[in-house]
Amino acid sequence: MRNIVGQTPRGTDFFKRSAIIKKIYRRLEAGNHIFLSAPRRAGKTSIMRFLEDNPQEGYAFIYINTEDVDDLEDFFRLLSEELLDSEAAKKMTQLVESSKGLFAAFTEKITKIKLWDLEVQLKQGEPSTYKDEFQDLLKKLNTRKFTIVIMLDEFPVTLEKIHKKHGEYQAVHFLHCNRALRQEANQGIQFIYTGSIGLASIASKLNATAALNDLNVLEIPPLSTAEARRFTARLLKAYNVKFEDGSIDYLLSKLQWLMPFFIQLVVQVLIDEYETRRKTIDQKFIDQAIEKSSTHRNHLYFVNYYTRLEKSLPPEEAKVAKKILLEIANKTEVPLDAFEEHPHSRRILEMLILDGYINNNQNAYRFNSPILRDWWKKYGKD
Fold first, then answer.
1. What are the contacts of 64-69 at 24+ separation with CB within 8 A?
2. In 3D, which of 230, 259, 306, 200 has the Cα closest to residue 1?
3. Fewer CB within 10 Å: C terminus or N terminus of the chain?
4. Can you give the pTM of this predicted structure?
5. Contact 329, 371 (CB under 8 A)
């Protein structure tokens, strides 16, 4: 098991979270469409990739990251192309004879739309749209022999981008188009949406929560202490790192927030230092590694937390969010009523909690991760 930091671990590098995977299948078996709710760095993409790489009998998964999409038609173009290129489509054409003709006709229609977009063919009449053709295909596909699950990563970011670029009406329209897609698709076509930004929070801002009421929400929590202990031990042993008894529990107590990314980040420092010093890991060793984890050497891992605010919030709200986070970082904890004077503070704080920056446990706002807090103190300034 390799210690992969910043990328999506797959295959033998993936730490299987059986309880979460079991819950996903249980909801799919009940016919649900799912929203996987998780903060950044929770491992949701790794879980979806595992489902795609290791489907249970009767399932085929398609993973699609929509983060860079800011237009409804571009969204459905991406879905169309990914479906046609997927193992799910290949499997369906092998199992269901009628699907060969459906996919062939769909490919031809999609090609015509592309040619129209490129102004290659003569413009005679209005062309069809990716949305209409994709929706029509999902109505016709015979999925009795197995279930196709389309997994859309960073869907809330796409929604927010469409809102910023095209306005509120188009953002609401986008939500309702997705609901219609789910409602009208043939039985056996299901969707998993995911994103660290709170989808319900954005929909509420748009007065469009009704467009989400058919989704079953499943939260991905941090690792349990037992899971985190096994995960950390496997990583250290994979690199032949010696550690004192009790040192892993000490490390987890210092990390507090047991998300895989933060464990892997500190373990990376421990491996580097052990290879240099060849000294058995103890509590002092761990304290030094945690301190190094928030320095400039790991700036690239954390800067996305900073820039993401500008992607997820309007400019003025992003400024308020940065100010709030800097105050919490400098004071370690801040009373719940500390930010009431800030405009839109309630929505901003909700977003910061859902996206994994902070929590409001024990009647105060605190950073979830002491490492992220220490980085924010040093670098989280305009």
1. 64/150, 64/151, 64/152, 64/153, 65/153, 65/154, 66/152, 66/153, 66/154, 66/155, 66/157, 66/158, 67/153, 67/154, 67/157, 67/158, 69/158, 69/161, 69/162
2. 230
3. C
4. 0.87
5. no
